[in-house]
What does this fold into?
Amino acid sequence: MDPKYNVVVIGAGSAGLISAYMSAAVKARVALIERHKMGGDCLNTGCVPSKALIRTARFVHDLRRHQELGVAEVQFRLDFAQIMQRVQDKVAAIEPHDSIERYTGLGVECYQGDAQLDDLHRVRLGDRTFSTKNIILAVGASPIIPPLPGMDRISPLSSDNLWQLRTLPQRLVVLGGGPIGCEMAQAFHRLGSSVTQIEMMPRLLSKEDPDMAELVVKRMRAEGVTIRTSTRAVRIEVQGGEKQLVVQGPNGPEERVPFDELLCAVGRRPNTQSFDWQKFGIELNPNGTFKTDAYLRTSQAHIFAAGDCAGPFQLTHAASHQAWYCAMNALFAPLVRFKADYRVLPWCTFTDPELAQVGLNETMAKEQGLAYEVTHYDMSDLDRAITESEDYGAIKVLTVPGKDRILGVSICSHLAGELIGPFALAMKHGLGLRKILGTVHAYPTFIEANKAVAGAWTRPRVPQWALRFLTQYHAFRRR
It folds into this structure.
């Protein structure tokens, strides 16, 4: 007889791992099937290796700014192969967290191979079939390689194969101005590559407020990254062994940008194209993601989807967040159901400075026609930032007019990804800026900036009548 499962999870990235873990934690029988590597893109080709590389690039950058930090002379030799080996070492160090051994110990039955649906309740893996009450699809996404003429004449880099490099490219072209493109453009430039970043939109980091994104762009340009916006990649040419990207600006003639390596960072496509989901009545959105409802059910109510293959976010923590809803709704409906809640979902771009956000930014608020007030705090005023020579950036908080209720926060700063956390907590539990101001923070720390922006909100809102009364009161006490 076929095994009988409460849940079969297809894909062992962030969404699949958490779905399986949560299912096993509540004592359901769960099978987890992964066709390639446990941990998915985040562990093997995404978050973990990129942050390891960014750490080394930041260290090299600090060495080069040694005089600013009070060190007269520094000598070092950069070994790119050793840097990339360190990246792999960090992946290997984290790998046990996502391993088959760990998840087997947690009660998950783990299998490797290419899973396919046999029917709406049966999943096939080779010559083995799993019958199940529910299915969770967590099949992820893959980098898009744009179909430029001439692309077949080179071996383009993407977040999948970038980590195989062992020789630093002298000239690197980065296609795309989103988070991955900006992170890698800055990191490789700091490691010694001459980097040109091409973006067809008018600006980089288009999901962020223009003023906050511009803080990052100014820093990248100041460091020497060549950034070309409103520029379209036309084709790739190889002449005399030299590779060139032909680009065209908004009104100008074609130009040629020579390169040694080309990194494609123009987006990711859901891994939903290799199977005919519609023959099982599972519908896809126009962008290839699974069409899901508020409970993350596909058009087949017992089949759920989470992570990059479901959208609307391509974030590891968003995938984990969705996974909880998938597992709980699969196992406990119709007794209870939970609607996925994205109202307080922070994210961070790990450039230097980092750019983090939670809730609404100004662009979103304007699009939704919401009234709001803005409070700014400049990081150049923060004592700890000054001592660290990291006094660059700003915090911007949107609040309900006349109230301290937080609608959203954008932070461009060193450690912005850490600073955004307390704001996410405050928004999640309905705490306003007055509560943040009334909380004691250790001195000197970066997190004091959160209290400082709360103070900046409070100062102009102190009632003038109260100040006049206090002036008279203290004058009376001096008599």
Summary: The domain at 151-267 is CATH 3.50.50.60 (FAD/NAD(P)-binding domain). The chain has three domains: 4-38+99-143+269-332, 151-267, 347-461.
